[in-house]
Amino acid sequence: MRQEATRAKGLCILGSTGSIGVSTLDVAARYPDRYRIIALTGNRRTEDLYRQCLRHRPRYAVVAAPEAAGDLSRRLDSAGLDTRVLVGAEALAEVATLPEVDYVMAAIVGAAGLLPTLAAARAGKRILLANKEALVVSGPIFMDAVRESGAELLPIDSEHNAIFQCMPAGYRAGADPLAVRKILLTASGGPFLDTPLEALPQMTPEQAVAHPKWDMGKKISVDSATMMNKGLEVIEASLLFALPPKRIQVVIHPQSVIHSMVDYADGSVLAELGNPDMRIPIAYGLAWPQRIESGVEPLDLYEVARLDFRTPDWDRFPCLRLAFEAARSGGTAPALLNAANEVAVAAFLERRIPFTGIAAIIERTLETIPVSTVQDLDGVLAADAEARRIATTLIGDHPL
Ligand code: NAD
Ligand code: MG
Q1: Nearest one of 341, 321, 317, 331 to 111, comparing CA atoms
Q2: How many angstroms is it from 217 CA to the middle of ligand 1?
Q3: How confident is the model at residue 170 (pLDDT cuts 50, 70, 90)?
Q4: What are phi and psi of 9, to 5 degrees?
Q5: Burial code of 55-83, b = ≥16 C-beta within 10 A, e = fewer?
């Protein structure tokens, strides 16, 4: 009995080679008695995955391509490790639902993370949800899976983690947060907050990924530059905290010190503050309901000196408007929005469309495909595929 209470929690990190994955390993490795790394997964960065395996000695490693799997397996074998190397999308769901896995960090980028994250939810795991696209795409299906299995859903996105921390004691994601008037979702405004509007079409991928406050993967960095990231977060917040979009307000806060706020009926506004470092929400998710040290420097308010707030400029950030519209429409609209955005961002990173083409492609895709109600996972996946097809055609037909 006593031993059970102190057993180290088995951790599976989906997307361990990414920005969130690396930060998760950094926090977890500080507490080898509390967290045991069971599975690590990577897509293309197999050299990084190899080094992570040497250091953390997981039981399983998952890669995307069979050739990479063979190579990784041989190298781990000659290093004396008995890590089993698995391959492909189904293996992601397999490691996320292993009986020895207690916690799943969902840190794959994009809708590619949906199936393993949903599998973990159905298996009743504690899910540390960084992969916001998985929730945006599947919406009620995901939240129902969490409710039905009794899974613990801990938001890792810094804003949602802040909101979760500001909710009443004992609050669980998905419940109606009593006496909450609205959520104030803070946004840094990204690298183009003050760029002249006429210069936006010329902005390069290098400029777009150079975020002023957060060090993140490329896709979310571009999403921050267009503010689609905040738009996806509005949809994410609406699902996690069971609130309609009209009770979610976006506030530009360039210092990124307040990670978000909850406005209560009595006039109290609760905020969570800290340095912009994802190890804060990650440590919170790992240790909840306790707290552990994360390795993040203490916040120095004298150095911060001031906190600014601005209203978002809707002309500058059309993606934010498109996301609010999708949130209000519901049904398959968020899945369509997300898929078109993934395709457009990839095209921008490959220099096939200009920065301002991202919003244009998404808007045209949404005009082309009618929104339907979400019946089941197949319906959602079909909407995702259709939006990818239309967005890809639009990019090919009309080089912008
Ligand atoms: P990243 O690009 O740095 O890492 C992505 C990870 O996913 C990598 O391990 C990669 O190998 C893996 N991956 C990519 N495509 C895959 C595929 N098709 N199949 C399997 N694995 C795949 O991204 P990131 O910045 O760590 O972001 C991860 C997720 O967390 C995103 O959904 C992002 O929106 C969210 N998030 C990130 C931050 C941040 O600070 N980086 C903050 C909040 C939320
Ligand atoms: Mg965020």
Answers
A1: 341
A2: 6
A3: confident
A4: -80, 135
A5: ebbbbbbbbbeeebbeebbebbeeeebeb
Verify whether ligand 1 is closer than 6 Å to residue 93 (CB atom).
Answer: no
Q: Do 110 and 342 contact (CB within 8 A), yes or no? A: yes
Q: Which part of the chain is CATH 3.40.50.720?
A: 9-156
What is the CATH code of the structural domain delimited by 9-156? 3.40.50.720
Residue type, 204: T
How far from the centroid of its chain's Cα atoms is residue 306's Cα? 28
Of 87, 120, 90, 88, give the one whose Cα is nearest residue 13.
120
Contact residues for 272 (Cβ-Cβ < 8 A; gap 6+) = 161, 162, 163, 165, 166, 258, 259, 260, 261
Q: What are phi and psi of 11, to 5 degrees?
A: -115, 130
Q: Tens digits of per-residue pLDDT, 285-313? A: 999 999 999 999 999 999 999 999 999 99
CATH topology assigned to domain 163-393: Rna Polymerase Sigma Factor; Chain: A (1.10.1740)
- Find the mean pLDDT for residues 368-376: 97
Atom of ligand 1 nearest to the CA of 17: 9
24-35 pLDDT tens trace: 999 999 999 999
Residue 3 predicted with pLDDT over 50:
no
- Distance from C-alpha of 254 to C-alpha of 187, rounded to nearest angstrom: 7
CATH 1.10.1740.10 residue spans of the chain: 163-393
Q: How far apart are CA 346 and CA 358, in angstroms?
A: 9
> Is residue 9 pLDDT above 50, yes or no?
yes
Nearest ligand to the C-alpha of residue 45? 1
**Distance (Å) of CA 199 to CA 192, 285, 350, 395:** 10, 40, 19, 21
Crossing angle between the packed helical segments 228-240 and 158-166, to the nearest 10 degrees:
30
Which amino acid residue places its CA nearest to atom 41 of ligand 1?
216
Mean pLDDT of 192-221: 95
Q: Does ligand 1 have an atom closer than 6 angstroms to the CB of 108?
A: yes
Helical packing angle, 228-240 and 318-329, nearest 10°: 30
Find how far residue 289's CA is from the centre of its chain: 21
Ligand 1 pocket residue status of 132, Cβ below 6 Å: yes
Mean pLDDT of 20-48: 97
Q: Give me the chain's average pLDDT, please.
A: 96
**pTM value?**
0.97
Decide if pLDDT at 10 tops 60: yes
